[in-house]
Amino acid sequence: MDQTPLPFSLASSTTLELEGENTVTVRQTGNSKTRCTVSLTITADGGKLKPMIIFKGQRGGTIATRELAASQYRDNMVLSCQSNARQDEENMNDWVDGVLVPHLQQHAAGSPVYLFLDQFAAHDTASFRTRMDSLGVTLKLIPGKCTWVLQPIDVGLGKPFKDRVRQKWFRWMINHAEADVDLPKASRDEIQSG
């Protein structure tokens, strides 16, 4: 399992324009600093588990209790909130409850289970280690600066995932690109459906 930040606006840092033009028009939404975190998980045989999306918000706040709880996508992914839209110890437990435990119950009963994570602080807390022990999961932390070699999710899933999201974002921008009209901000619902 690994998480990756996902900006709501994926505008390119480069532009193209005809040679000699003095002005380059850049269209963007008001979401240039808004982001969420997506946690992706794969199994040793390449199976993809339910993704988790962490939005900015308070755990018991309006976004969590009304908007995410009523999301049409809540059965296909785990939705959570955190004050900075980042993975932390609390939503690591949400991931365990919503992704790992159901997988263990359906596919791994009685089999040895190893969980490979990088050394991100939320992955290496005493309570998380205790939780993994209680589930019979052997936790393996990948040494720093080695994830690109030892964690296939970075290259095999994370990069293609971001590439697909970027393609969908460009299509979304094209569909909303009416002349002289401010582009709307992408909603949390649109991010979930992405």
Describe the structure.
This protein is α/β, with parallel strands linked by helices and about 190 residues long. The strands form 2 sheets. It has a 4-stranded mixed β-sheet with strand order 1-2-3-4, with helices on both faces. Strands 5-6 form a two-stranded parallel sheet. Helix content is about 35%, strand content about 15%. Helix 1 links the parallel strand 3 and strand 4. The two termini are about 20 Å apart. It is globular, with a radius of gyration of 19 Å. It has one domain (about 30-105, about 110-175): 2-Layer Sandwich (Nucleotidyltransferase, domain 5). The longest helix has 24 residues, at about 150-175. The model has no long low-confidence stretch (mean pLDDT about 80).
Keywords summarizing the entry:
194 residues, alpha/beta, Nucleotidyltransferase, domain 5, 4-stranded mixed beta sheet, two-stranded parallel sheet, 6 helices, DDE superfamily endonuclease, nucleic acid binding, DDE_SF_endonuclease_dom, nuclease
Which secondary structure elements does this structure contain, and how are they paired or packed?
Blueprint: E1 2-7, E2 35-40, E3 52-56, H1 62-68, E4 78-82, H2 89-107, E5 113-117, H3 126-135, E6 137-141, H4 147-150, H5 152-175, H6 188-193
Parallel strand pairs: 3-4, 5-6
Antiparallel strand pairs: 1-2, 2-3
What is the gist of this entry?
The chain has 194 residues and is of the alpha/beta class. The protein has six helices and six strands; from the N terminus they run βββαβαβαβααα.
